[in-house]
Amino acid sequence: MEIIRGNYNLKSKHRGSVVTIGNFDGVHKGHQAVIHRLNNQAQRLNAPACVITFEPLPHEYFTRQKETTRLTRFREKARLFEKLGIDLLVILRFCRKLADLPPETFVDDILHQGLGTRHLIVGDDFRFGKQRAGDFAFLQTAGVQYGFGVESTQTYQMDGQRVSSTRIRALLEKADFKSAARLLGRPFSISGRVAYGNQLGRTLGFPTANIALKHRNVPLRGVFAVHVVDEQKTIYEGMANIGTRPTIGGEKQLLETHLFNCQHNLYSQHLEIVFRHKIREERKFKDLGELSSALKQDKQKALAFFQTIRS
To answer: Quick one: pLDDT at residue 32?
Structure first.
């Protein structure tokens, strides 16, 4: 899969694509159904399958990321697209210029001149361009003008409800990992590179692999039983905390993971943290001694949970 950042990097070799456009946060079952149709159409036309998405996501730009949560960061999303067989992933930087772009210009500059689109697949409620003036009917008219086909995707439902990133976020906030996994088509996980921390966990007897969440808000808070997958695909049991570490006056959100029975140096490794069960909410303890006692209890609860799913 080729990743193209910005429409100015589109070349003649990228023309003639079958295209879909969206945020694709989570790349869930509904998104996967769209990608399946995209791949089928690309195969039929012997054309590249292309996804256009945005960084930051439009709602993150307009809210300046306040109170917004994301299911997948860019690297995770790209990895999922590659597994689904996408040929081209076009990343458009969402900014004021793009937000103010008239839909006519978006179609001409990106879909027509940039990608030479042969076929476009979008949701029937898809809106784009300045003041969201572009819609499916507009795209159908543009398709006639520029010579590309346009088709809509119907709402993908499970259990009689639409599968959406919003619905999955709500399930994760309730720590309903089983239901979230059904809608995602896989267990919910967070990936990232291990960074150096302040070594507090080590002094408490619980060394942690720390992953900075940077500007990404995730729909989870608290202490969890997790599986951890390292770069060699070895799977460990462990427990993780997502929060700000209020006991030591922390402010930035951090993912800290303690792996059971792992003595390896994990610094700079890229880990996948798979969430299985919520143990408790994050809380502020009166001192480090009380925190250490709580961590010991957390570990016993995590070990008990893993025993139940192994038996």
So the answer is: 96
